[in-house]
Design brief:
This protein has helices at 5-13, 32-38, 42-45, 50-53, 59-65, 106-131, 146-159, 175-185, 203-211, 229-232, 248-260, 286-291, 297-303, 320-335, 343-351, 357-367, 384-392, 402-421, 425-435, 439-446; strands at 17-22, 27-30, 69-76, 79-90, 93-103, 165-168, 193-197, 212-213, 226-227, 237-241, 262-263, 272-273, 277-282, 306-309, 340-341, 376-377. The protein is α/β, with parallel strands linked by helices. It has a 5-stranded antiparallel beta sheet with strand order 2-1-5-4-3. The chain contains 20 helices and 16 strands.
């Protein structure tokens, strides 16, 4: 097999390496690129049986099978390359074989680096999912009262959709608890859940937190800019608590995000597509705020796609007993002692209006154990606000008749005197004298 003239010039001009063997697997030709890529010099390989020089060579197998081999990876020292091998046929007969050697270029290496980057990004995304995870499920929501059960059933239905949800209810009713549960019941449960209290940040900070910003947008901006919470929550849910605290400009930006499903970073010019479910919450009368031009009407209709109202605790007293048991169980574990609630105290707790709702109940049950010396919470151990309302409502449970109070005090003092002077006749004489009564009177009271 002779390779002469123009063919030789053409093969030598190729950037890829070329190796040609005859039908006996003896090397007939290699071009300059082949020696550059593999490091094997011309005189060390041409005229030699290929496997003498390259023991792992597969081109001789191509002579036997007549089948092409593509993208076979090879490595010589620190040099990596891929080889395409084909038989050379003349009138249907295999007369030799050719290998085309392609060096793994910087572009290929870049592809590998990109793959590594994608793996790193995936790890980061998994970390974000773990970091921003909804804590509560519907199992954590106590609902013994028929009113509560109805709300919970509706919330479970809402969770199955991707619609925007507006949770309404007084402060302390558990709106965030429901937001967590809705996310965990949805098909987004494995994606991030991010809760943002709109009242805790000023307008500028809230905008940059939600939408992120580009590098150099303002003094103190991070190099490279900052990813906003909407981008972090992509694929998941974002809970905007106290949404009425947003100013009008930010409300307009949120409206665009809801309508277009895109966000634009502060200082940016391009829009980025996102897939985020918005769950909003408020304890304020939105309709009144719309009339007063304190909340955008168009945003009001956009967030109230699926409304969910959490009733106040005074309208679902059927939950009270289980809530008390739930909170007391946690407190008992913390204090490492058993705590009971007296019958009278329980009646007062049931009669109270709970303007602060479940949050106030929790605080009350954390306060009361600090006031007791034993193991039982009585009416006198409850916060004064609760005691005052009970008195104002004509609740006699908090006030003992004077006769009963005097009797209890007498018993207490008599026991004290006997303990001091003893239970003998002489001791009782001294006790009677200390108490300012006759011995006969003391015996009567002891009886």
């Amino acid at each position: 097999m002779e390779i002469e003239g123009w063919v030789k010039f053409i093969l030598n001009s190729l950037y890829d390496g070329i190796l040609i063997i005859d039908k006996n697997a003896v090397v007939q030709y290699v071009n300059d690129s082949y020696t550059r890529i593999t490091g094997v010099t011309y005189d060390k390989i041409v005229g030699k049986y290929l496997r003498e020089v390259r023991p792992g060579a597969r081109l001789p197998d191509v002579l036997k099978t007549g089948k092409t081999l593509l993208r076979v990876p090879r490595k010589e020292g620190d040099v990596e390359y891929v080889v395409n091998m084909s038989p050379i046929k003349v009138k249907g007969e295999i007369v030799g074989g050719i290998s085309v050697v392609t060096e793994i270029t910087d572009a290929y290496k870049l592809t590998e680096e990109l793959k590594k980057s994608h793996l790193t990004l995936e790890k980061l995304r998994n970390h974000v999912k773990h970091l921003y995870k909804a804590k509560y499920t519907f199992d954590d929501i106590i609902s013994e009262d028929p009113v509560s059960k109805k709300v919970k059933q509706m919330a479970k239905k809402i969770a199955k959709t991707d619609s925007t949800v507006l949770i309404r209810g007084e402060s302390g009713t558990g709106k965030e608890l429901y937001a967590h549960a809705i996310h965990n019941e949805s098909n987004r449960r494995n994606e991030p859940f991010i809760a943002v209290n709109c009242a805790t940040l000023n307008s500028q900070l809230l905008e940059s937190e939600l939408f992120g910003y580009e590098e150099g947008t303002f003094t103190g901006a991070k190099k490279g800019g900052k990813v906003g919470l909407f981008e972090v929550a992509d694929g998941g849910s974002i809970f905007l608590d106290e949404i009425t605290e947003m100013d009008h400009n930010l409300q307009a930006k949120l409206l665009r995000t809801l309508q277009e499903r895109t966000i634009r970073r502060v200082g940016g010019v391009s829009e980025k597509q996102i897939d985020v479910r918005i769950i909003a919450a408020t304890n304020k009368p939105l309709e009144k705020l719309v009339k007063e031009n304190k909340f955008r009407e168009d945003l009001y209709y956009r967030i109230q796609v699926v409304p969910l109202t959490i009733p106040p605790l005074r309208d679902r007293k059927g939950d009270l007993k289980q809530l008390i048991e739930f909170f007391l169980e946690k407190i008992q574990r913390q204090l490492k002692k058993r705590i009971n609630v007296s019958e009278n105290a329980m009646k007062v707790l049931y009669k109270y209006d709970w303007p602060g709702n479940v949050r106030q109940l929790k605080n009350t049950l954390e306060f009361a154990p600090n006031m007791i010396e034993g193991y039982t919470i009585d009416t006198k151990h409850l916060p004064k606000t609760i005691q005052v309302q009970a008195i104002d409502n004509g609740d006699a449970l908090l006030i003992k008749p004077l006769k009963e109070t005097v009797k209890e005090k007498e018993i207490e003092e008599i026991k004290k005197a006997i303990n001091i002077y003893g239970d003998t006749v002489e001791g009782k004489k001294k006790a009677a004298k200390a108490l300012g009564i006759s011995l006969a009177t003391l015996y009567n009271k002891l009886d």
